[in-house]
Design brief:
- This protein is an alpha/beta fold.
- The chain is built from four helices and six strands.
- The chain has a six-stranded mixed β-sheet, sandwiched between helices.
- α1 links the parallel β1 and β2.
- The two termini are 20 Å apart.
Length: 138
């Protein structure tokens, strides 16, 4: 099962349709550093509703507030924990693939979180994107 993970920061929402077209994910996770009570979470929920209508996904579009600071260690820990917890909800036979969209504006903590997962059994791919260049897989 393919999942695109989009940290909502900077220009990343503008690239969601491009990466969805390229990867054809089964579902989409929008994550952010704010809490469920924050107005930014409401905006993310509205974006989620829009994307569910516009994208043809087998699964859903989820919003996952990380409720942490943008300090690299805090964000990295919250991000990697979110992916580990999400992965734990699926059977190993489902072979989860996480495709993470990273832009030049993405806070450093997301990289820390991805690095901490490098020794785990979670299958992650990082996709670098910008509104001025094409998305490329690294």
């Amino acid at each position: 099962m393919r999942t695109v993970v989009v940290p909502l920061f900077g220009e990343s929402p503008l690239l969601i349709f491009d990466i969805a077209k390229q990867i054809s994910p089964d579902r989409l996770i929008l994550c952010h550093t704010w809490s469920k009570k924050d107005s930014a979470n409401l905006n993310a929920q509205l974006l989620s509703s829009y994307l569910e209508k516009e994208l043809d996904l087998d699964g859903d579009v989820q919003v996952k507030p990380l409720n942490c600071s943008e300090h690299p260690f805090s964000l990295g820990d919250s991000f990697s924990s979110m992916l580990l917890n999400d992965n734990a909800t699926f059977e190993p036979a489902e072979q989860m693939e996480y495709h993470i969209l990273i832009t030049q504006d993405t806070p450093l903590g997301y990289f820390f979180g991805l690095t901490s997962l490098s020794g785990s059994l979670i299958n992650t791919s990082c996709h670098l994107g910008s509104t001025s260049i094409d998305i490329s897989r690294s």
